[in-house]
Amino acid sequence: MSTAFSPIPRVHLRTSLSPPHPSPRHFPFARIRASLQESGPSIAVVGVTGAVGQEFLRVLSDRDFPYRSIKMLASKRSAGRSISFQDKDYLIEELTGDSFDGVDVALFSAGGSISKAFGPVAASKGVMVVDNSSAFRMDDGVPLVIPEVNPEALEGLKVGKGKGAIIANPNCSTIICLMAATPLHRHATVKRMVVSTYQAASGAGAAAMEELELQTREVLEGKPPTCNIFKEQYAFNLFSHNAPVLPNGYNEEEMKMVKETRKIWNDSNVKVTATCIRVPVMRAHAESVNLQFQNPLDEDKAKEILKNAPGVVVIDDRAANHFPTPLEVSNKDDVAVGRIRRDVSQDGNYGLDIFVCGDQIRKGAALNAVQIAEMLL
Amino acid sequence: MSTAFSPIPRVHLRTSLSPPHPSPRHFPFARIRASLQESGPSIAVVGVTGAVGQEFLRVLSDRDFPYRSIKMLASKRSAGRSISFQDKDYLIEELTGDSFDGVDVALFSAGGSISKAFGPVAASKGVMVVDNSSAFRMDDGVPLVIPEVNPEALEGLKVGKGKGAIIANPNCSTIICLMAATPLHRHATVKRMVVSTYQAASGAGAAAMEELELQTREVLEGKPPTCNIFKEQYAFNLFSHNAPVLPNGYNEEEMKMVKETRKIWNDSNVKVTATCIRVPVMRAHAESVNLQFQNPLDEDKAKEILKNAPGVVVIDDRAANHFPTPLEVSNKDDVAVGRIRRDVSQDGNYGLDIFVCGDQIRKGAALNAVQIAEMLL
Questions:
Q1: What pLDDT sits at residue A38?
Q2: Shortest Cα distance from B242 to chain A (angstroms)?
Q3: Domains plus CATH for chain A?
Q4: Alpha-carbon distances, residue B122 vs A27, A276, B157, B312 (angstroms)
Q5: For chain B, is the Cβ count within 10 Å smaller at the N or the C terminus?
């Protein structure tokens, strides 16, 4: 049986009107990459059949990521099927402890328990593990990295030095928020941040996207919606993020934003609160972010800063009422920021409101991980 | 030609799994109403064919609103058609200056320009005008009223005293937010409020709801979506509220929240910022509200206060991850509040995060207006 490589086959092709980014912006590692092209690293993709796993392949291909060999790893259920990548067919192998022999870089996106079971095994064999799960994010000694934000956290880590490591990819909503908030933070120091998210189905995997599509068809036909992934009706509805709620009343998704921001900014004083909501959108998140600064920052300066920020695009046309939307950033690398305005609830120029959209599967997961891998080369 | 009375015919019946509220909670005016039952006021409904106009009729009926006679008023286009209400057929009449002769109470929901043109005419003829548009909301001398929040603003105004007046219904997002925030404000005094909205199609009228449904069908069939009401794709997408953007970068919808809150709370110091977003939901708004208080208020006390607040229902089951959703409040009178938790970004008990949902057409518009009319009897 053959699994064609087409990320989230039916769903996003229909619901996204934007074609994949025609010429993805490359990180400035072209020279390093060129020298490795012949003898590039041996890669393993763990969880290759999932939504993020398939996006890993697309991003590797789009960015001409150099590799000597690539292993497609998944659960026993998918093992034995074939997957096509860059005009070659690969057999999907079952993930085992032996999978990492001879591997240099492994991109993990198969859930926290798989990462916990196999991440340390791989690292102990000298593999650079870039892990998309939350398993190790808050561990001391595990860098939590957004390449545009805190590349310094990767200092001293290099593929091919014989020493493995685990590097964590932040949570999608943290990445998307901090891509926009960090350039402003660097200029005026964020004291407090209030975030409300509008999160897409893709964060819960390909099956959640399929359920949203199925439910929508059912509701339009007057049938009761199928609720397998989420217990609530998702079509034409929204609900508090499905992550478990902690004793303090925040759900895990929200506390990720609070804690990961502190670790990534290396600032234990920054105050963050978040309310995370799932909306019936396919693959890109939106976030309404209110910022309180230590130092003044007016909206014109903020726009200028954001326009010059790597990986960020400003969409802020007040006259045309044109601002970022999830659809517009779907399949795009850049995070889009708009609605940049002085917060009228704060005195002077010490506050801003912004609205951010980013592709959850791409910059929120696969792209960020591949960028980390590029920095390790 | 007959226009059957079925509010937003196809759409909400399919997308809302909740039946209309079985026994709407009545405001405590039963006795006053009983004495007026025989000689109740003469009512006019202006904009009766619109989404809110049709909901006016449903609410009047659900609440056994007393009336001696009822006039169905609309534009020339709809005039001459018949409408059925409480087992009687009524002819829709064209709205003119003479429409208000002999009328005691007029419920307006036909847009700001109609209100501006005909509201003062009606008031000058002794009519109590309850206006759902934004035309007069911020005018000095025009009460802006949520009956559960600031009934005192109606003092001295009564139907049948021969003196007309205009009373403004606040904007839907303001009503829904303040239904939850006010009881907490009364206890601990809100200093600052950061609101992000998740607004339904219904706020832009029945045609917008139909467009969302049509677009969704089109997108699922792989066709380009029809964009008549909104310039953006709405199906499986979201976008900044379509209200015009003002020079300060806020859109009108957001500034309504800022200004109306100050007027309703009679507190020019309260600081409010809002980001208003349209999401692909049919008829109920959701709002993520971050509150900063002058005085301490812990989350248990906040829950207790909200449980006892009129017109508010608390849905806050952390273990089951069950919180308010737009679907759950659709066609309901009460505003639902959940995700009530101490804000970890603020010291001590001086901050709370809450999530609020309310039916935009019902409590956000028609029900609130009818409640105002009840208070005027």
A1: 58
A2: 7
A3: 2-170+364-376 (3.40.50.720), 174-361 (3.30.360.10)
A4: 66, 46, 15, 33
A5: N
